[in-house]
Predict the 3D structure of the following.
Amino acid sequence: MQPIAPREEKTAIGLALMALSVVFFTMIDTSAKWLVLAGLAPLQVVFVRYAGHFVVSLLLFLPREGASVFRTARPGKQLLRALFLAGSTLCNFVALSYLPITVTTTIMFAGPIVVTLLAIPVLGEKVGIHRIAAVCVGFIGVLVVMQPWGAGFHPAMFLSIGAVLSASCYFIMTRMLAGQESNATSQLWGAGVPTLMLAPLAIPGWIWPDTTTGFAVLMLIGVFGALGHIATTTAHRLADASILAPVVYIQILLAAIAGILVFDTWPTIWTFGGGLIIIAAGLYIWHRERSQNRRTTLSRRGGPPFVR
């Protein structure tokens, strides 16, 4: 088994890496929407995204750590984690072929809210009434974005909901494996399982892009995926998750810019309004969790830390 890299206190670098990962994730969504609109099947795009991620991970980790990097003491959990991640990506990429990137991104922001609910039965975490109330407010924000009562509603939004649920299960599995598996092992399993699973389905109906730009985007989407996930994992080793969590919300601005520049699609007032509600709920949950972690740390130390 490979040694797990120790935690370090380098908050500034961690924040920078987390912001960089958000840029890469926005580039994944932008590339996926562009490729699907260009005529490629979503299944093929998902396969290329993970195949590229797998190849980059192999090049980074295999020469340094050897074949033992594939060994895991928890293959069942790694397999389930990888399947949840692939399911989320597939649902999201199909949804992107019908919906503006700002809409899919905003709905995905409900992830921390769903994770809060799932952590109760799965991880046995205790969640108070304040966080439950924030969860309810967050779901109201999702309804504002989806507008099930109006003409702006599209059935593909249910795919975005499926992507959120699957991604939340992926994060729950990631929490369960935290401190038990190395970053290299998790990266290779997370990318390798979808690659092997989707290859028989994607390759027979393969279509190459008919432009140089399309070919470049197809080759780069997997690189974006690898760099984004590696940056995220490294960021969490350098800074506390409670500090990094709010950084993901800059993606709504990046998605809006990508939508305008690449697809000439402007976000609606409903998307921004619902997004603000979701972000407010997510930030409140983040604040409550961070406060609780601080109280737990202080109680263990026997008093407040020395301030300097």
